[in-house]
Write a structure and sequence with these properties.
192 residues, globular, 3-stranded mixed sheet, alpha+beta
């Protein structure tokens, strides 16, 4: 394993949580791989896409919910804190949790890329690796630069062992434990 920023963290998790708790609602902070990250405010198409994911999930599996911006503890030894665009878990799963939840019981996380300079390292690498290290079974990335959905599965030893990509318009089957097939035709409406 290569050394990471977490080996030389900018601050402790406790210091990050104090800062994150006191910022205004217009800013979202994450602590990925020992590094403070600012998550940009999403645009309208970003919001529509994550709501589309939520609708598809709830129509297929009404016992599940796609929670927006749910704080999760990711990476080994709880060195990371992320707020996925969507976190799929059973209804009521987070009722007794505080601001930051352990990923146990989470079936999938979903991210929609943003049009900013950090999206490549943040969504395609750092968060993907953090979610894999946390053992989250499925990571769904809606990649707006490529107009495709990328599905990562089989997390082992801090990495997802399987990756498939699907263009907008394809039927995308999310494997167990999600077991949902997404009709992605609507996503064509949000392509640039």
């Amino acid at each position: 394993m290569t050394p990471s920023t977490a080996d030389h963290a900018q601050m402790s998790v406790e210091e990050f949580e104090q800062i994150a708790h006191s910022i205004p609602e217009t800013v979202t902070l994450e602590f990925i791989n020992g590094k403070l990250e600012v998550k940009h405010v999403p645009d309208g198409a970003h919001d529509e896409i994550i709501m589309w994911v939520a609708d598809q999930c709830m129509q297929s599996r009404p016992e599940l919910r796609l929670y927006r911006e749910r704080g999760l503890k990711v990476e080994t030894y709880r060195r990371g804190r992320a707020r996925p665009d969507g976190t799929l878990a059973p209804r009521g799963h987070f009722a007794a949790h505080g601001e930051w939840s352990d990923p146990d019981g989470v079936l999938m996380v979903a991210e929609v890329t943003s049009y900013d300079g950090d999206t490549d390292s943040r969504d395609r690498k750092e968060k993907r690796d953090g979610y894999a290290a946390a053992g989250i079974p499925v990571y769904l990335l809606v990649d707006r630069d490529a107009d495709e959905l990328v599905v990562y599965t089989n997390p082992r030893n801090g990495a997802y062992k399987a990756r498939t990509s699907h263009p907008y318009g394809a039927a995308v089957t999310l494997p167990d434990p999600v077991s949902i097939t997404l009709d992605t035709d609507e996503l064509k409406n949000y392509a640039r």
